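Hi all, long-time lurker, first post. I run a small reading group and we've been trying to get comfortable going from sequence to structure in the token notation. Rather than ask abstract questions, I figured I'd post a concrete chain and ask someone more experienced to write out its structure so we can walk through it together at our next meeting. Sequence below, copied exactly:
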Amino acid sequence: MRLLVLLLWMGVTQAAEVSSPQHMTELRYVDQDAGDPPYLTRILVTPDFMRMDDGKDGGDFVVLDRQRHKLINVMRGNKLAMVFTPGALPPKPAGWKPKLVTHLAAKGTQRFSLTMNGMTCNEGVAAKGAAPDAARAMAELKSILAATQYRVWRDSPREMQHDCDLVNQVWDSGATLQLGLPLEERDFRGKTRQFESESNPLLKPELFRVPNDIPLTDAPS
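-- Answer (accepted) --
Happy to help. Here is the structure in token form:
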């Protein structure tokens, strides 16, 4: 189950300014869905915002307003900016006990495995000291989307529903990010993520704004 396109941004004002230290954190990952070619994911992080895109400043993007706890998925071609906010989740089922196991790996990293009922839902390598605020922002994004991801799971055909989707995207979505920045990941559907680089370029506040000609639309609640 993919994460409904990309999803991020501020959500209230289309011209909010990023607060000013002069640099932002830029992370680049190579992502790949099972059976598809790899693609670049760029993640830009400031204390107030996080943006995800394909590396192009002028393309579609997702932006997280970390202070207002809102996400916007900006699709320029469709002139659409969908706003997502946190929602209520149902209680976890009785006996819901995913297991997170870690082992020391290279210096400063640990290998992890998140399992449910004997199935490996997510596994990889995390670095506790690498870009800790970026790891927090990733967890914030997942938390905001958890209720939406639950509704997607609930409304999917029974044969497409899997407990690991609920582990990875709903009730335990931030579990592995508490271990640190992901350097490698592989989920139960075969999607992979490989860390490529980290840098600290000059801040570009315009990258964290929804274009003025794109109206904001609330996503279904």
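A couple of things your group might point at:
The longest strand covers residues 119-127.
The CA atoms of residues 171 and 182 lie 19 Å apart.
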